[in-house]
Amino acid sequence: MVTVLIAGGGTGGHVFPMIAVGDAVRAAAPDARVVYVGTARGIEVRVMGERGDSLELLHVLPLRGGGLSGFVRGAARAGRVLPEARRLVERLDARVVLSLGGYAGGPVSLAARSLGVPVAILEPNSVLGLSNRLLSPLVDRAYVAFPEATRALRPSSVRLFGVPLRRAFARAPYAPREGKLSLLVLGGSQGALALNDIVPRAIAQLAQGRERGVDLDVVHQTGRDREAAVRSLYAELGLADRARVVPFIDDVAEALAAADVVIARAGASTLAELCAVGRPSILIPYPFAADDHQLKNAQSLERASAAVAIAQADATEARLASEIARLAAAPALRARMADAAAALATPDAAARVAADLLELARAPRHRALRFPIGGRAARADEAPRRAAMRGTAPPGAALGQEEAG
Questions:
Q1: Are 118 and 358 contacting, i.e. CB atoms less than 8 angstroms apart?
Q2: Which segments of 284-366 are extended strands (E)?
Q3: What is the spatial distance between Cα 163 and Cα 296, in angstroms, rounded to a whole number?
Q4: Most CB atoms closer than 10 Å: which of 208, 312, 321, 323?
């Protein structure tokens, strides 16, 4: 039996591609064992728990978002968790490790490489995340979705396969309607505070402009624990009968298929899902994503005429209302955008990644590398501290989910 470890987690942008690859591995090799590795702070605990998946947890802290002191704490914790990660790889007899970044990806990957186990990374965004950047010199494979992401990678390791998606995401016929528009608002698995405020107010402007002839209905995913405030805002604006407000959409594929236009953030998984189903979109990227990767993701779709990209600083109520009205009045344009999105889809990404992972798993192991794993605690703490002073991080600190919302 071949054991495949898939490490990462945090938000849906990591968790759902992990699941897609894991399902594809089991479909290709029914005797394979898939084990996920994450942390207790991510949504993987809920999502994989509901599915009954095998999930191992590591106690790791983020590197970003807490300044220098947060970086030092996160890097020191990463150093201390490496022996635990190594014991996990040995106990499960993992034959290959796939990292999607996130808190757990770096330590597990480094531990695996120290044991000679092949390591692969999956980068769904157009810019490499911190964990994947630090791991890239050590990996056998780098699965990417955007050509822009290949620039920082060893060419022989790159496989341009796309973002792995669950099987439910497939092309749905798009029949643009005259005089009526169904909007789907997605802020990612955690919701998006800015969209929760801007979108209802923009729709209110449209509702007041009856001369524009825009008849709207809305499905708005708010993120957990945020639906009451958003529902109250729609009611305050006189839109309670037009908007269905929900904290989380379990069947996103079905919701996309029912939509005429999608308003969303620009995480890589969201964009891949849009393209797989084939829907036009207005994208308002999360402005604090690491290296502004969401804006670059959105601009990539806009260049392909599949989406309208609006930086959050420019996403006023008036601008958003104008874009919605423009698309509502142009069904032929929406149809072209839907086709352009579908042309970017990579429906076989999960299967291709799974097949390549299984090939790596069956290959001879590498020679083990020597890292200071399990050494004196003082040394484990000192390396991250010195790296922080230099502005760099040691390989063992390669972790951190950089995208929220």
A1: no
A2: 307-309
A3: 16
A4: 321
Structure confidence at residue 75 (pLDDT): 56
User: What CA–CA distance (Å, rounded) separates 93 from 116?
Assistant: 12
End-to-end Cα spacing for the chain: 38
Q: Mind listing the pLDDT tens digit for each residue in 110-155? A: 999 999 999 999 999 888 888 899 899 999 999 999 888 998 899 9
What does DSSP assign to residue 400? B
288 or 183, which is more confident? Answer: 183
Q: Residue 132 phi/psi, 5° resolution? A: -70, -35
Residue for token digits 């097949």?
A: 355
To the question of pTM greater than 0.85 for the whole model, the response is: no
Neighbours of 208 (CB within 10 A): 12
Rounded Cα–Cα distance for residues 68 and 390 (Å): 11
How many Cα atoms occupy the beta-carbon half-sphere of 244 within 13 Å?
9
Average pLDDT, the chain: 86
**Would the pLDDT of 387 be above 50?**
no
At which residue do the structure tokens 């997605």 appear?
A: 186
